[in-house]
Amino acid sequence: MEGVEIRLAQYDDLSSLRLTFEGIEKLFFVSSNTFDSEKRTKQHENVVQAAKETKVQHIFYSSLAFGGLGSNSKVDVQKAHLATEDLLEKSGLTYTSVREGIYAEAFPPFLNWYPSITDLFLPADGPVAWAFRKELGEATARLMLKGGYENRKVLLTGPKAYTMQAVVETINKTTHRNVALHYVSLEEYVARNADNDEGKKPKAFFDAWKSAYVGIANGDGACIDQLMGELLRQAPTDGLKLIEGLSTEDRDYRQEVTNKSDVEYHQWVQEAIRQTNPRDEHSQPHADSLTFPKKKMNLLA
Questions:
Q1: If exposure means fewest CB atoms within 10 Å of the residue's CB, which of 109, 128, 165, 229 is most exposed?
Q2: Taking the CB of residue 234, how many other CB atoms lie within 10 A of it?
Q3: SS3 call for 128
């Protein structure tokens, strides 16, 4: 790939991270995808340590939007991001934590919905400011190129918040189904979904996901910020309208909990950097870590 330097690194291998970050000015740091909190913490410590040793000038960390700009969310996955933000703050490195909105395209795993299912069982509901993953990627890229926001947390969200019930109603309207949403206890939520999950996700997945619904019921998904529209220079896509479009295009639309969505997100960030920075005419999107000519950016995914 002409004009692009590809560097591979492992989160568990500090020496490979040092080599990858050598000469890098801006680092786009995406959290590792393990559900093991202890392992993730160590991996993230490796990233921050390598960045310090190689004198990375600015880290842009891809966090999550549960709880908005606050630091009190009890959602398990958000607590892991809060720990990394604390690590960055104490490191002395210049950083920006980009709290990315909840992907609208991920509504099937949030509902644990499959095309064959007519009854959904959730422990709670609440408004979520669903965001378009492609726009999150572009907005993040524009943020990196713009610079600023040093040692701050920023929030990228969709323009309006909708409940899970509203999403189910949209599925029914666009696909001519009659899916029913039932609210059950946390224990029944785990039991019903783990025992009959078409995707064969383990019970531990649903145990870990309970806190997300408690957080959503407490308003952790409802926070809305104008920054994404400012970066995109246009209004972000309405999350429910995006879900309606996806369901209209493919009535059996589904997205499993896999790494594929993360790879697509990273590609959109990289493509947006290339498009908004035409001087780097040889830069092309790629799913691995990249160093972009002139700008010296690295995307760790």
A1: 165
A2: 10
A3: strand
Compute, in degrees rounded to 10, the torsion defined by CA atoms 34, 36, 37, 38.
-120
What's at 60, amino acid-wise? F
* Three-state secondary-structure class, residue 291: strand
pLDDT tens, the chain, 301 aa long: 566 778 889 999 999 999 999 999 999 999 988 878 789 989 999 999 999 999 999 999 999 999 999 999 999 889 989 999 999 999 999 999 999 999 999 999 999 999 999 999 999 999 999 999 999 999 999 999 999 999 999 999 999 999 999 999 999 999 999 999 999 999 999 999 999 899 898 998 899 899 999 999 999 999 999 999 999 999 999 999 999 999 999 999 987 544 444 444 444 455 555 555 544 433 333 333 323 333 444 555 4
CA-to-CA distance for 151 and 185, rounded, in angstroms? 40
The contacts of residue 289 (CB under 8 Å, 6+ apart) are: 6, 7, 8, 9, 20, 298, 299, 300, 301
